[in-house]
Amino acid sequence: MPMSDRSEAYARFRASMAVDYGKWRDGEPYDIAAIDGMSVAEKAEIESELSARARLDWRDVEALERIGTPAALARLELAAKAQSDGGGAAALAVKLEDGWSPALERRFIAKLGAARLMESSLDRLFEIAEAHPTAAVRAALFEQATAGEESERYAFGAFLLYLHGHSDEWYGLGEEHRPHLLNLKGTPDEQAAARAWLAGKLAAPLRAGAGAA
Length: 213
Description:
The structure is a single chain. The chain has 213 residues and is mostly helical. It has two domains: 8-100; 133-213, no CATH class. The chain is built from 13 helices and no strands. The radius of gyration is 20 Å and the shape is elongated. The protein starts with 7 loop residues before the first helix and ends in a 10-residue tail after the last helix.
């Protein structure tokens, strides 16, 4: 179909798919609202194009969720299972809209272990953890903070402090906690001391319900 025969909504959505550095830096999404104004054929074209991508990013996930066909949702399910990056975390968040379950908890914990700082997945995973702070999830977070990838221990430890009410934000910016968080990847003695310090903090949560399973 020639572009001249496309809807205005299709043209808007297509334009929004051109993600330049500014859009990437600012986290600007696709024009998701435009999907509602597209024809069935136009939506099918977008769905096919996005689904064919080897890996979905969070913008692709939002678009496929809005299209909402069985094929689009199946592609999200595949991303939720196979991807450990930000797109996989976003796809898992869509899956969790149907409810938390032991199987999804195991999948989520696996994603925590596979997450990497530079893949923009930790924030989305932390949002899920905050919504589902089960005993198993909190244990997995503690494992990542104390024995996981060294470059990510600070982030996991800072989030645990936030989750348990010891910080107002999960980025670990407070000077009070910073030395202990840094020691999570220090010498063996420093790591042991930091682990004990963090465990003590988590054993005395300040946020209501943080210690509940």
